[in-house]
Design goal:
Layout (H helix, E strand, L loop, with lengths): L4 E4 L5 H12 L3 E6 L2 H11 L2 E4 L5 H14 L5 E4 L17 H16 L1 H6 L3 E5 L3 H4 L16 H23 L5 E6 L15 H6 L2 H5 L3 H12 L12 E3 L2 E2 L12 H17 L2
Parallel strand pairs: 1-2, 1-4, 2-3, 4-5, 5-6, 6-7
Antiparallel strand pairs: 7-8
Helix pairs in contact: 1-10, 3-4, 4-7, 4-11, 7-11
InterPro entries: NAD(P)-bd_dom_sf, SDR_fam
Organism: Agrococcus citreus
Keywords: Oxidoreductase
Length: 279
């Protein structure tokens, strides 16, 4: 496999750091993004990778990140939108958006849009890390994306993960003919510190010995991400598809809205408006 330039968000720990270590062994050029300057720099030094720091709760950080990435490279072969979080009580970011929606969806949506020319100069692969929460927890209301009328940490996270899938479908339908290949996948329930700062009851599983029985390791989750990042669209995996680990999700594994073109289009238009509002 020829060397690829891979931009990987959420790379300071968990699935992202595990995937970065495996991708480095394959000789790829890695551009690692994390929220913690110290943790991201530590992983980058270990791997001889380049790194950037951005807090996805601030869309100006995302704009600065895109600017810095474009200065560092004239092509991106793979953008892995892997950063994400399940949060606690409803809070608004400085941009005026519900924090779970912004960190998990609006920030990667904006980053992808800003980097489209750089992706089109490369192989143009976009990989969104989603979750089965899109089926189990989502109660998607395009008119209440911010959870102002009805909010819970689990519902907000499920809706945001559904948005990751709809985003990949929207990318494929809009830019597939221009050379972009987009996919979303559920890595399985991965044993990381992901839910530590959340008020969600899901954090109980992540914090207890049950995690070793019920959750897969970050290395396994990272290997699944690599299946897409280091694969060949149209051969290894099919663009515009949602996968459960390495297999196309079946009807009982995904939210019915995944296949609703109207939901894809409505979310795209609303997302464009929300990121433009904060510019």
């Amino acid at each position: 496999m020829p060397q690829r330039t891979i931009l990987l968000t959420g790379a300071s720990d968990g699935i992202g750091a595990a995937a970065a270590r495996q991708l480095a062994e394959r000789g790829h050029r890695l551009l690692l993004v994390g929220r913690s300057a110290e943790k991201t720099a530590t992983v980058a030094r270990e791997l001889g990778a380049e790194h950037f720091v951005a807090d996805f709760a601030r869309l100006d950080d995302v704009r600065a990140l895109a600017h810095d990435v474009r200065r560092a490279t004239d092509r991106i072969d793979v953008l892995a939108n892997n950063a994400g979080a399940i949060l606690g009580r409803r809070t608004l970011t400085a941009d005026g958006n519900e924090a779970t929606l912004q960190v998990n969806h609006l920030a990667p949506f904006l980053l992808t849009q800003l980097l489209l020319p750089t992706l089109q100069a490369g192989e143009g692969i976009v990989v969104n890390t989603a979750s089965s929460a899109a089926r189990r927890l989502a109660r998607f209301d395009i008119d209440d994306l911010q959870g102002a009328r009805s909010y819970s940490p689990n519902r907000a996270y499920g809706n945001a993960k559904l948005a990751n899938i709809l985003h990949a479908r929207g990318l494929q339908s809009r830019y597939g003919d221009a050379g972009i290949s987009a996919v979303a996948f559920d890595p399985g329930n991965v044993r990381t510190g992901f839910g530590t700062g959340s008020s969600s009851l899901l954090r109980v599983i992540w914090r207890t010995p049950l995690s070793r029985l019920l959750l897969v390791s970050p290395e396994q989750g990272g290997t699944t991400l690599i299946f897409f990042a280091d694969g060949t669209p149209g051969t290894t995996w099919q663009p515009g598809t949602f996968y459960t680990e390495r297999y196309p999700a079946t009807a009982d594994q995904t939210n019915p809205l995944v296949h609703a073109d109207a939901a894809v289009d409505a979310l795209w238009e609303r997302s464009e408006a929300l990121v433009a509002r904060s510019a």
